[in-house]
Design a protein that fits this description.
The chain contains 7 helices and 7 strands. It has 225 residues and is α/β, with parallel strands linked by helices. Strand 4, helix 4 and strand 5 form a beta-alpha-beta unit. A 7-stranded parallel β-sheet has the order 3-2-1-4-5-6-7, with helices on both faces. It has one domain: Rossmann fold (3-Layer(aba) Sandwich), CATH 3.40.50.720.
Length: 225
């Protein structure tokens, strides 16, 4: 069976770029988003597109189960869902903070709980979370809290599952993602591939894209741009 990647939180930017990067390496793809999105044309391969809100645990688990039924236990899982919004302290209600936390962090917990035990039982796999906000920003409070949360989550999951042969990590993006800039999504997507292909003895917990270098021009691995 071909290797498979599952991406939770797909959009026209980074999510599609990550899908395209793994498609270039021959991976089958399952993508999950709140609304129906098609990335087949961008990825260049058939894609299983599934609809689920990351905050709706039964729907999310059903979508993940459908992906497993189609492709088997995935080799790579990427959690890329997030609510990106400007909100200073006091501007967002308690309910609003809970909504943001549910997408930014709890959805990643639900995804991990559904898939990591099977990956651990198999003894291999990669689970990656899109991070950001290396320094908290008061004008983006809910996002700062969320990205701190997924950084802690990645560390906890690494402690739990590394002994079982599963590589858990995050990609921390230091700026706004936009094509043609130092934060081009295709360049950022290269970090996900690099983390997945690291040897067990050199697994990193976190990769940083600072915009100071271009992964696509510095790599010599097969298939890199």
């Amino acid at each position: 069976m071909a290797k498979a990647a599952v991406i939770v939180g797909i959009g026209p930017g980074l999510g599609t770029a990550v899908a395209r990067r793994f498609a270039r390496e021959g991976f089958s793809l399952a993508v999950i988003a709140r609304g129906r999105r098609t990335v087949e044309a961008a990825a260049g391969v058939p894609v299983l597109s599934l609809t689920a809100d990351a905050t709706d645990e039964p729907a999310l688990h059903a979508a993940l189960d459908t992906a497993v039924d189609r492709f088997g236990v995935p080799d790579v899982v990427v959690y890329n869902a997030a609510i990106i919004q400007a909100d200073a302290p006091g501007e967002l209600s308690a309910h609003g903070h809970l909504d943001a936390w549910a997408v930014n962090v709890v959805g990643a917990v639900s995804t991990a709980a559904r898939l990591l035990p099977a990956m651990a039982e198999r003894g291999s796999g990669t689970f990656l979370i899109t991070g950001g906000m290396p320094e908290p920003k008061p004008d983006y409070l809910s996002l700062s809290l969320g990205k701190a949360g997924v950084r802690a989550l990645a560390s906890a999951l690494d402690t739990r599952y590394r002994p079982d042969g599963v590589h858990v990590g995050s990609v921390t993006v230091h700026g706004p993602i936009a094509p043609g800039t130092a934060f081009d999504p295709d360049d950022i997507a290269e970090h996900y591939w690099r983390l997945h292909t690291e040897e067990p003895g050199s697994w990193r917990l976190e990769a940083h894209h600072t915009g100071q270098w271009s992964p696509s021009s510095s790599l010599s691995s097969p298939g890199s741009r």
